[in-house]
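Protein modeling request. Please complete all fields; requests missing the sequence field cannot be processed.
Requester role: graduate student
Desired output: 3D structure, C-alpha cell encoding
Chains: 1
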Amino acid sequence: MNPVVWFEIPVNDLDKAKAFYEGVLDLSLSLQEMGPAKMAFFPMKDQAEPGAAGTLVKSDGYGPSESGTLVYFEVPDIEGTLKKVGEKGGKTLMPKTSIGQYGFIGHFVDCEGNRIGLHSM
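Delivered output (121 residues):
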C-alpha cells in the first residue's frame, strides 16, 4: 500500500483555483464546507488503489507555496497538460523530463502560486 492517503492544496481564491484544475486536468471538483474550511474535492473512489484523494482548501492557516510539499498528478500527456496550464494562468517550471524506468515528470505553478508535479509513463 502507498503511504499517502490524502492531500490538501492551499488556495486563496477557491472558485478560481477550482476552474483552473478542472480546465487543466479535465475533471470536475465538488464544493463542500467543513467547519470554517471551504474545499473543492478531486474525484475519488473509496478503497481505490493506487493513489490518494484530496482537495483544494481555503482556510485559516493554509497558504499557497511554491516551495512546500510537492503533489504529483498522473496524466496521460505531460506536454499537453502543461500547455493547458499556461492557457489557464499557470506557469511551467520544468518541462517534460525523463526519470528513466519510472516515466516522465513535469512541474508547474498553479494560478494560486503552488508548485505542482505531473507524472506519466
